[in-house]
Design brief:
68% helix, single chain, 6 helices, globular, mainly alpha
Length: 159
């Protein structure tokens, strides 16, 4: 018995992540905005590596740069670095318990902040304020429910 194809879930989840990144937040909550796109991409790189590779990450990053009005290529670079690291450790990461997976994703999101800081430093732009460093913690806490939700959508109800 074969499972029904659910090819629409990946593009729809990427679009939702892009829209969540555009959602206006009050000034106090803005620094806490999780990097939704990275969380969704991490899921797809871990669970569907044939569909979500470096080229896909670069394309999604360029689209995000255009949508968010950031430096062209910055988010593409961030997505490619994250995807490369995830691909490298995917085999181990898939079998971690959810708490360790969340911790690993938190470290990846922290690495993403470091890459962002390095790009800003290289371009002479102001550094991110200290409170922006809390977003990886929130992303780490959001990983388990997000993973379970996307897994349920991708796999569907088992017979």
């Amino acid at each position: 018995m074969s499972r029904p194809r659910r090819g629409w879930i990946m593009p729809v989840s990427i679009i939702i992540a892009l829209l969540l990144g555009l959602l206006p937040l009050p000034g106090l909550l803005q620094p806490l905005r999780p990097y939704w796109l990275a969380l969704i991409m991490a899921y797809w790189v871990i669970e569907a590596p044939d569909s979500a590779g470096l080229g896909f990450a670069f394309t999604v990053g360029i689209i995000a740069d255009l949508m968010f009005g950031s430096l062209l290529g910055e988010q593409a670079l961030r997505m490619v670095i994250m995807t490369f690291i995830l691909q490298r450790f995917r085999a181990r990461l898939r079998f971690f318990p959810m708490s360790q997976q969340a911790l690993a994703i938190g470290v990846l999101l922290l690495n993403d902040r470091v890459v962002t800081g390095a790009v800003h430093l290289a371009l002479g732009e102001p550094a991110l304020p200290w409170n922006y460093w809390w977003a990886p913690v929130l992303g780490m806490l959001l990983w388990p429910p997000l993973f379970v939700m996307l897994d349920a959508l991708r796999l569907g109800k088992r017979q």
